Amino acid sequence: MIRVGAHLGLHPPREQFELVRRVEALGFDSVWTGDHVSFHTPLYESLTLLAAYAPLTARVRLGTAVYLLALRPPAVAAKITATLDVLSGGRLIFGVGVGGENPKEFELCGVPHRERGARVDEGIEVVRTLWRDAPASFKGRFTRFEGVSIDPKPVQRPGPPIWIGGRSDAALARAGRVGDGWVSYVVTPERYARSLATIRAAAAAHGRALDGFVAAHLVFITVDPDVARARATWVARLSRRYNQDFGPLAERYGVFGPPERCAERLQAFVDAGCRYFLMNAICDPADEAAQLETIAEAIVPRLRAP
Predict the structure, then answer these.
(1) Helices 74-87 and 46-53 meet at what angle, rounded to 10?
(2) Which of 277, 281, 275 is nearest to 256 (CA)?
(3) Phi and psi of 92, rounded to 5°?
(4) For the chain, what is the total number of helices (H) and then of strands (E)?
């Protein structure tokens, strides 16, 4: 079964809330948000935003893709995510990543950029320990505590699934070692398949069977019957978002054009082992709802067809 979520852009609050209600009505399986403390473009704080979505929705899962755990004390992240899981009735998917493309936000948060991978590795252990144990104890490089408890515990036991984001060798090893899922972005289907093999090998090396492991992909997608216009929109908006030229990346990584062309590109990821797409519509904010409707009506059925 192919599952599909919607990764939403930023809108004024009233429009943001209308959009998330529409996402649920369209039948998407989940709704997602990115995460940065400081970035090239404005972003709401991710877990605060998902908490606002909780009472507006009843069915869709709520996910971060991905939360930069190294920027926050893991005990605080554990408390917030446990609360969010309770308030949403057990719908949180906690996507976690290392980040690092914006070193200034590590400086802002007082976290050495070079320590980000180690902090994420330890932070995942801390979060899971606090979700699970009462009382909980932990002795690590960055965090130590004994005989404490964070309550209430998450609805999902022993805790929400943690999906690891990233493309690096370290991220793939982390996904195999401790992840309940993996989220890629800006990779080819061929690299996606190789990455999954790397994850499986890392899991086997640590005695994990990966039962229930979810292979996901964050898709930057622009749906438009005019391929050239779709490409231009895709390149312009992503170049602005990430403060780099996406023109040379378009043919290799872009998903744009008519629905059938987009579905064909995504089918290559299905063939490579992907079972969950996070659709990020790359367009003018005023067009995002229409883009998501087209994706739901003209692309998702093609992906789910037997």
Answers:
(1) 10
(2) 281
(3) -80, 135
(4) 12, 11
With H, G, I as helix, E, B as strand and everything else as coil, classify residue 163.
strand
The 10s digit of each residue's pLDDT in 237-288 is 999 999 999 999 999 999 999 999 999 999 999 999 999 999 999 999 999 9
Distance CA 161, CA 102 (A): 26
Cis ω before 154 (30° cut-off from 0): no
Q: Give 3's strand partners.
A: 276
Q: What share of the chain is helix, strand, coil (3-state, %, to 5)?
A: 50, 20, 30
Q: Which residues pair with 63 in a beta bridge?
A: 32, 93
3: three-class secondary structure by DSSP: strand
Both tokens of residue 216? 């996901």
- Of the chain, the percentage scoring pLDDT greater than 90 comes to 98
C-alpha dihedral, 108 to 110 to 115 to 116, nearest 10°: -50
3-state SS string over 4-68?
EEEECCCCCHHHHHHHHHHHHHCCCCEEEECCCCCCCCCCCCHHHHHHHHHHHCCCCEEEEEEEE
Question: Quick one: three-class SS letters along 199-251?
Answer: HHHHHHHCCCCCCCCEEEEEEEEEECCCHHHHHHHHHHHHHHHHCCCCHHHHH
What CA–CA distance (Å, rounded) separates 178 from 170?
12
Residues belonging to the chain:
306
What's the CA gap between 179 and 254, in Å, rounded? 27
Per-residue pLDDT reduced to its tens digit, 236-247: 999 999 999 999
- Token readout for 21 is 């209600």
Encoded amino acid at 260, one letter: E
